[in-house]
Structure formats: structure tokens, C-alpha cells
Amino acid sequence: MARSAKAASAPRCPVDVVMGLRERKKLAAWRTIRSAALRLISERGFDAVSVEDIAAEAGVSRTTFFSYFPSKEAVAFEFDPLELQRWRSLLEDDVVDDRPLWDALTDLFVEFVGLLPDWLPVQKRLVQECPGLANSARGSCDSFAPDLRAWISRRLPDGDELRTALVFNTALAAFMTAVEVWDPDDSFDELLELVRTCLRWAGAGLAHPVS
After folding, report:
1. Would you say 155 and 168 are in contact if contact means Cβ atoms under 8 Å apart?
2. I want to staple 23 with a disulfide (CB 3.0 to 4.6 A). Which of 19, 161, 207, 209 is the partner?
3. Would you call 66 helix, strand, or coil by DSSP?
4. pTM of the entire structure?
């Protein structure tokens, strides 16, 4: 993704470095619970694992589980807090340039997916196993959607609300389509290429396949 020379040369401080001790401990506990949950779900299947099972595996109480996650579905589909911070860093780092909007959007989504090589395959397999979780998977986009909408608005003339909504919904649909058709047993690079193709095709107005 093209960035200004100043932005490219500026030293970056990883978000986990600037976190305080309390925040790091909370993040460590969050990750411990999620790792335990994903491990059990992978071994037994989603429906066969209870919140009590996850809490016991993570070495925490049921109450502690719910202080970090509102439900069993959330432990499988919520973004890691640092993933969200890195996503916001991508949006902040990107500067307005002369590239077409859809080229910039394509690069942005590809970089975003590149943050999730471990999480997305697990999520996709869960949805294949339990189709009823599809709504939870789609709902996971809610955590990064407002930032994306604001980014699009900044790039459009006068932040036109109609165009912003149209571009936002079309781009999100293209991204979700790429994830939907991707087979998690295929390489992660294939997912990245699907994201590129779907975003470019959407940007071209679906008039014809893109090369």
C-alpha cells in the first residue's frame, strides 16, 4: 500500500509495547481463554464444548470467562484486541494519494487479511461444521466496520453519505464473498488472491471478470 515517505520512514512502536502492565495481563488472559476454547473446539467440535469446559481448560472460573467474552460464540469469532489496533494503524498510516479508491481499498483488505492467517481458517472451519454460526461470523465484521466506513468517507468528495454507504457495503460484500468461497484447506495465499479478485471486480462494477 502506498504511503508518504514520511510515514514510511517514521519509526513504528508496536502497539503491545505501549500497553500498560494491566492491559498486557488482560490481553494475556483473553488469549489464554481463546486458545483453550479453540483447542477444545478443534478436538471435540463446537457443540460438544461448554463454557465450563473452556473455563476449566483455561484455568479460570466461569465468571472470569464471561468477564472477557459475552458468549461461547464470541470466544470463536471476536477479534484479538491487538488485531483491531493493527487494523486501525493501517487506516491511520494510509495517506490520501492519487490512486483510484478501489485500488486503495483492495490493498487495505489484503493487508487486513494478512493479519489473520491463524484465525480465519479456524473461523471458516467452524462455520462449515456449524452453519448456524454464520451470523456470528458475519457479526465479527461489526468491530472493524465503523473505522472502514470513516476511512471511505474521508476519501470521497465531501464525504457523500450515499456513496460512502454504497462503497462500504459493496466492499464488505466482496470481502465476505472471498472468505465464503475460500476452502480453508487451501493455502492462505489463495485467500489473499480471492480478496484481490473480488475487490477489483466489485470496483469495476461487475461488468466483466478482472484479469
Report:
1. no
2. 19
3. helix
4. 0.74
